[in-house]
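#help-structures

NK: newbie question. if I give both the sequence and a SMILES, will the prediction place the ligand too? trying with glutamine
OV: yes, paste both and it writes out the complex. here, I ran yours:
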Amino acid sequence: MTDPSYRGQILVFTTPLIGNYGVPLNKTAIDDKDVGVVLESDKIQCSAVVVADVAEKFSHHSAVESLSSWCARNGVPGITGVDTRAITTLLRDQGTTLGRLAVGPDASLASPSAEEYWDPTTENLVAQASTKAPFELNPTGDVKIAVLDFGAKANILRALVRRGAAVTVLPWNYDFNQICDRYDGLFLSNGPGDPNHCMDAAMHLRRTMQEWDKPIFGICMGHQVIGMAAGMEAYRMMFGNRGHNQPVLALASAGSIKAGRVYVTSQNHQYALKLEDPFPAGWEPFFINCNDSSVEGIKSTAESGKKVWGVQFHPESAGGPLDTIEMFTDFLAECRAHKLQLNIPRAQPMDAAKVAPGLAHEIPQRVAVAA
Ligand SMILES: NC(=O)CC[C@H](N)C(=O)O
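OV: that's the protein plus ligand as structure tokens.
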């Protein structure tokens, strides 16, 4: 409920009893090593929740309030006592649907006109969810990562900081090209709504990918923006992929990921990159969804000389399986290797004939540095 990617959505829980763990205290003080929250952001992001049976009594050592009191404090409506199985069946048949919560006598049998349904996808929800001003986490980290914030989950920032990165979080439409020299890697976050609202970011990124050869990694919305910058198209799926048990097949190896393996992943998306054959020059498919064959990841080819990856799923989990969590380690390892390579002084061209007459052919022209 606090994942900013759910902004604007009414969530229908298929688990019948919801709220029995209660809600923990969500601290909101950023210190320079922590992202400042326990949950995925500082507030409830979804528009409403629908649960079959809400637990008023909660029991968990870290809980401080019930689900309904938390919703009330956040001004987010919830409805209970409805048949979520019937709603799920309807959504399974007709796909994600515009919805509306109404209670009381006036609501019964009322059939609102189409204009009475708010369609969140018409708005740029990313502009609402993104940070308004840049901020830093763990400034003393050894590798400097810029994060384009489309509505980042806290656990993504945590995954970077816990692996030693100094993280600068930038607004979604910030032109990174102006400051790219200061960073060792670029990360593009998850975010709510239609990725086509982020075309400005994709255009900035297109230039970055042409002119900057350091590692770039994107998750979910970030992956879609990378795809759009590479010339691919993002479309709205009839059935989004959600939940914590989505199997994806790796089609290429990179870092900890091995081609041919299936990884179980956490997902939350309504849009996807269109599967193209062939892929744009310099790009290849990275992962494919085992259930619906949708694109789950793309990467730059070895021949392109670039290090760019995007995944549609959530390696940071929270919640869900940790099968792909090492992708953060892989990304930072690439950034560190790249940084090391840049910092090692290159061999100066020498006048071979003067240094060692007769041995000129043995003096290496370039020093190769192992990654
Ligand atoms: N979690 C995300 O980043 C989702 C991306 C995009 N909003 C989608 O629904 O496809």
